[in-house]
Amino acid sequence: xxxxxxxxRRAQLAERLRAAGGGVALLPTAPERTRNADSxxxxxxxSHFHHLTGFDEPQAWLVVRSDGHSTLFCRPADPEQAVWHxxxxxxxxxxxxxxxxxxxxxxxxxxxxxxxxxxxxTVWFTxxxxxxxxxxxxxxxxxxxxxxxxxxxxxxxxxDLHPLISEMRLIKDVSELATMRRAASIxxxxxQRAMRYCAQRFRQGASAVHEYEIEAELLHEFRRxxxxxxxxxxxxxxxxxxxVLHHPAGHARLLPDELCLVDAGCELDGYASxxxxxxxxxxxxxxxxxxxxxxxxxxxxxxxxxxxxxxxQRDAHHAAVRVLSQGMLxxxxxxxxxxxxxxxxxxxAAYRAFYMHGTGHWxxxxxxxxxxxLSLGEAPVEQPDGFGGTVVKRPSRVLQPGMVVTLExxxxxxxxxxxxxxxxxxxxxxxxxxIVTDSSxxxxxxxxxxxxxxIEAWMRG
Length: 461
Ligand code: GLY
Ligand code: MN
Ligand code: MN
Known about the structure:
The chain has 461 residues and is α+β, with helices and mostly antiparallel strands. It has helices at residues 3-19, 47-53, 79-85, 90-98, 109-117, 133-145, 162-170, 174-203, 211-224, 287-305, 315-330, 336-339, 342-347, 452-460, and strands at 24-28, 34-36, 39-40, 61-65, 70-74, 102-105, 122-125, 157-160, 209-210, 229-230, 235-238, 253-254, 259-264, 266-268, 271-272, 275-280, 381-384, 390-393, 404-407, 410-412, 427-429, 432-436, 441-443. The protein folds into 2 domains: 3-168, Creatine Amidinohydrolase, Chain A, domain 1; 171-460, Creatine Amidinohydrolase (Alpha-Beta Complex). The two termini are 38 Å apart.
């Protein structure tokens, strides 16, 4: 991405700061984390910081004033360190490469920051993230306060920067959408590969396939296409493990007559993808598996139909819940005698026995991306709380072109009295990523087969 995109975003932030009364914004990137001894966890930048700089080295801060001036603190270039850890951009090259007005060494942060804050009415930073940030800022403000007798003006307000940048990130621009389409396509290929791998192993006579083998196929496909890695820990759930919502890929054995649920997506150039597919291990759905699968697919289609500009983000969930609830009654998962009509099932939240999570979330730099879920300009209203009661809060947010959401209904059947045994231990989720367009939504992850016949044909191929 060219540095002009990041410069334009910094200018947009400065404009938002001015509109909110002015001041100075402070953005540290993410800290490095020690794994043990002198080994580090793989480094991942802070998403807000990267959105405004495109800079992915650790130990860096961005300071943006509402007059548009920007300062980057970063590590100086160091030929000796380069031998061990590679090239650093350095303070000399940073202004030209990143388009910031000036760059200073990160070691001078504590010394330089009070002067950057002096005369600014408001200090903007992300509250509570990282936790130690406010303490650091308090220290700089204390330094300034001690200089007030000499006529130095200390800021009088601290405000949360998070909503300002989150709103900027919520609507994706053309270059972001292009990256997200590429990430989605790599992840779709990884799901294709996982399905084929399973079918082949069983055709070759394997009695079981381990979850970790399938995870390895996903990782292979992510990396060979240049993705940096998974956007979140991959879920590979054999059979009954699919009913554990966050089951990590482990050592469990997937048997040929079971379903396999894979929730995995890569991160590419700072952007996440998030796909779930559930497929029959050996390539052929049983009758009960197919029946429940088609129900979840119909629920997802209802969610897709509800995802268009002018609809609310939560409408997809309500649409999916209605289809799933009707299916729970039709398949006898919920008894009509006990639970009544589909409207009763929804009003009493009885469906939560088999569907207990939401149907989607914002997707972007983070897999659960930033952005307010409730309408910004509307008054609170009484509405169902999803647990059988009501709550007073603002309505769900109206969708706009350029927003990206996931659509991920599921059904998870734990053994229980009255639940037909043929459905026990079946866990199904189907998840696609959708860009809201001018008139509807574009599914960017459908490279991964989703219709039952399509999955079976792909696994035979
Ligand atoms: N993979 C995380 C989620 O689907 O929300
Ligand atoms: Mn998701
Ligand atoms: Mn997911």
